[in-house]
Write a structure and sequence with these properties.
557 residues, 40 strands, two-stranded antiparallel sheet, single chain, mainly beta, 5% helix
Length: 557
């Protein structure tokens, strides 16, 4: 077993070894046997809760019996607390060091419907969540080597709690814990967030199935200021956000891997940054499938999910180093939403409002989205605080279309203090594909955009963007509509390798007196009637057309 002196934070080599050993584990007799001598779950004797007086009939409260089994296991140096088949009604169970809670097939840990069975438990670690919750069904603080495993179920029975904060218990909440494993269990019906990991080190969620539609705030999982986290092979069905990374205090969420997961939601599928105080660093997400929840929503009633991928920093903090690849999405209103804002919410009393944060070094690639709404995707920072180093590559999105010239020409406010959500700028953006504003070093490579209905808006609108690369854009225009792409106050841009497959009236409209160094080079414009139109305020030297294949009589001014 890993010793209590295991280094924190893990070195890259040690963490990869830990994850690799865990992923290669085999299951023998209900126990996890990792290769070699590495086993990150608790080891020791087995304690049956029925031996401590648990009845398991779903009516008698078994809290004391389960807690007695946990306490006994801890006193003997650790071990497994087993819940055999049955329904165990319980209030808060406080896990202990080196103890595993194992739910056997047919067992259900049922959350009590009486809030008095959940004692208030405000942790020492201060965070924004102090305003939301101080109760949970399974709780732990400053523990080491803990686990919840097995094919059984934890059901919070959260539907009867209403919507008031501080009286709704989480299903699972671990605070400042180390070496946490949650594996194989079915988690259902929390009265609040379903599982919250706050300021923990080395957290692994594997093979977990979530069903969470009991009330408001029914997220799938919330990773909050944690370090060295792996979420794999999980399925999340939830009314609210699915896989959510937060930083509700000064500590960042960093070194996080999410892979091989399915997320269905009425809200945001993969999301980080509605609380961003400590920031996010070194995040990798891959091989995920996303679609709207089929169960009727409690708080969210939209037939589509809100967003597939939502990356935000609005309460300070640095969102730095995020890669997302191999993701499919279906019927999500806005497949990609990236926002640097300035809501500036403080996480505890007596501290100053945070400065505007940083969003940089993001790459999203190899993504396919079908059935997107008419709104369009949004990538935007703020004046004097641009998003930096953002790449979208090899992405295919099918939109509803149907946008109007009025929508194409609307002025979108900065709304820098607004709550970040897909509807914060109204029902439609000026572009049916991507609206990009205040970005430095933006690369859009090989975007394939489709619309179910003709759309009079541009496919791309870029405003106040510096160091822009657009390569291999494949998107339709509409007769009588705006140019295929509109650039305003754009500097140092290269547009290349684009070859519209269908007729386009105007390929590019360049606007803004500060636009400069825009090169349109090496494109195939056989289907384009007019290559470029520039506003009267644009300096003549701002645009260069170089080495493009032009149709006979094509214009370019």
């Amino acid at each position: 077993p890993m010793s209590a002196s295991y280094p924190s934070p893990l070195s890259k080599r040690a963490f990869l070894g830990w994850v690799g050993a865990s992923a290669g584990a085999t299951f023998l007799g209900g126990a996890t046997q990792a290769p070699g001598d590495v086993a990150h779950r608790p080891q020791g004797p087995r304690f049956n809760v029925r031996d401590f007086g648990a009845v398991g009939d779903g009516r008698q409260l078994d809290t004391a019996a389960i807690q007695a089994a946990v306490d006994t296991a801890a006193k003997t140096g650790g071990g497994t607390v087993a819940l055999p088949a049955g329904s165990y009604l319980s209030g808060t169970v406080f896990l202990k060091d080196h103890v595993e809670l194992y739910l056997e097939a047919g067992s259900v840990l049922l959350g009590s419907k009486d809030v008095e069975d959940y004692p208030e438990n405000r942790p020492a670690k201060r965070s924004w969540t102090d305003r939301l919750v101080n109760r949970s069904l399974v709780a732990g603080e400053r523990l080491k080597h803990i686990a919840i495993r097995g094919p059984g179920t934890i059901d919070g029975q959260g539907a009867g709690y209403g919507v008031k904060y501080l009286v709704r218990p989480y299903l699972i909440r671990f605070v400042e814990c180390e070496d946490v494993l949650v594996e194989g269990v079915h988690l259902r019906n929390s009265a609040m967030w379903l599982q919250h990991y706050l300021a923990c080190d080395r957290v692994m969620l594997r093979g977990v199935t979530v069903f969470n539609f009991a009330t408001r705030n029914n997220d799938g999982v919330d990773i909050d200021g944690c370090r060295d986290v792996c979420i794999s092979d999980c399925i999340f069905h939830c009314d609210d956000d699915g896989i959510t990374l937060k930083s509700t205090m000064e500590r960042p969420s960093e070194n996080v891997v999410v892979t091989n997961c399915v997320v269905s939601t009425h809200c945001n599928a993969i999301k980080m940054g509605t609380e961003s105080h400590g920031g996010f660093k070194n995040i990798t997400i891959s091989n995920c499938a996303i679609y709207p929840a089929q169960t009727p929503g409690f708080a969210h009633q939209e037939p589509r999910g809100q967003s597939g991928i939502a990356l935000m920093a609005v309460d300070g903090g640095h969102l730095d180093g995020v890669t997302i690849c191999n993701v499919t999405m279906h019927d999500m209103d806005v497949p990609i939403f990236i926002r640097l804002g300035n809501r500036g919410r403080i996480f505890t009393d007596g501290i100053p409002k945070p400065e505007v944060g940083v969003v940089r070094n993001i790459k999203i690639s190899h993504a396919v989205a079908t059935g997107a709404g008419a709104r369009g995707c949004f990538l935007a920072g703020l004046p004097d605080h641009p998003i930096e180093n953002l790449t979208l590559e090899d992405i295919q999105i099918g939109y509803a279309g149907g946008g109007t010239l009025e929508q194409a020409r609307q002025n979108i406010p900065e709304n820098e203090t607004g709550h970040p959500q897909v509807g914060m700028f109204g029902p439609a953006l000026p572009a049916y594909g991507f609206f990009c504003r205040h970005v430095n070093h933006l690369a859009l490579r090989y975007l394939h955009l489709l619309t179910s209905q003709p759309d009079l808006r541009p496919a791309l609108v870029c405003v106040a963007v510096k160091n822009l690369t657009i390569a291999g854009l494949d998107a339709p225009g509409s007769p009588g509509g705006e140019a295929l792409m509109r650039l305003r106050q754009v500097q140092d841009a290269l547009i290349c390798d684009c070859q519209p497959a269908a007729p386009v009236d105007t390929f590019l409209r360049l606007e803004g007196e500060n636009s400069r160094n825009v090169s349109v080079m090496g494109n195939g414009f056989a289907q384009v009637r007019e290559v470029a139109v520039t506003g009267s305020e644009v300096p003549p030297s701002a645009l260069a057309l170089i080495g493009n294949r032009l149709p006979d009589g094509a214009g370019g001014s």
